[in-house]
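User: Here's a chain of 227 residues. Predict its fold as tokens.
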Amino acid sequence: MQIDILTLFPGMFESPFGDSIMKRAIEKKIVEIGLHNIRDYSKSKQKSVDDYAFGGGAGMVMQIEPIDLCMQKLKAERTYDEIIYLSPDGELFDQKLANQLSTKNNLMFLCGHYKGVDERVREHLVTREISIGNYVLTGGELATAVIVDAIVRLIPGVLSDETSALSDSFQDDLISPPVYTRPAEYKDWKVPEILLSGHEAKIEEWRHEQSLLRTKLRRPKMFGKEE
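Assistant: Prediction complete.
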């Protein structure tokens, strides 16, 4: 998978993509990530990429030209399945969307800043708008890192145990059941006996019951979707 990210602050991705699973996925060339500084496409001497909003109001707006020039260059190199703008009012990101995006070949992400981008970017240049929650961040970089992480871990070959992702929370519209490891008893806190029984069918039944219970308690709006 090729992922290209348009940003004003490429350095913000060094840590999220420089460790753990993301680092290994990049090193194994399962995913290639390109970071593109939008300022490099500004035609002004100061490399400015923002200006005042027409009609007045507080805050600056990212200009369309540098964004368009950067996108044109990248689109000349490959065809993108989606060009995604991170926006607080975009569709809410969830596991189902992560699954869908993980099957794509080429994705482009646009990270906004200030009061956002010129509306013509949203009207003519992007194909999808996504939000990771009903709140506002200082920019789209952190949201992009979250989405890319959720997508990449689903690509075959990224996780050492490929079945692990299939049992994640939300994959079947349920929250994952509780998990335990050694020791079986710690400070009189004991692991449920069923997990030590070795009876696979009963263990799976217990886990499903626990998933149903947790979903009902913690995500009541989701409860019942699996039926």
